[in-house]
Amino acid sequence: QVQLAESGGGLVQPGESLTLSCAGTGFSFSTYAMGWYRQAPGKEREFVASIGYSTIYYADPVKGRFTISRDDPKNTVRLQMNSLVPEDTALYYCSARQSTSSPQYWGQGTQVTVSS
Prior knowledge:
Layout: E1 3-7, E2 10-12, E3 18-25, E4 33-39, E5 46-51, E6 56-58, E7 66-71, E8 76-81, E9 90-97, E10 104-106, E11 110-114
Parallel strand pairs: 2-11
Antiparallel strand pairs: 1-3, 3-8, 4-5, 4-9, 5-6, 7-8, 9-10, 9-11
């Protein structure tokens, strides 16, 4: 079955960088659109970034600071996060979806905390 495992979260200071990784197993990775979402305490889960065959989307709050990339031979998607601010503090989830009419799969999440 589809399994997603995030890693790379941690505690950083404002202005610093962090790279999240997500390893996918149990599915044809290259045929899925991969994405990152986040959920801050007391808030709903929100979209961060996604990458498909040739399309990349970013949420407005992270444009210019975050970069999503994928390595299909390694079944991995990454999220490079620069110039982090306290508002980026959240549990970050990796997602996989083959199409908009297909189920969306989630990892367990990795915590990112930005604090001085």
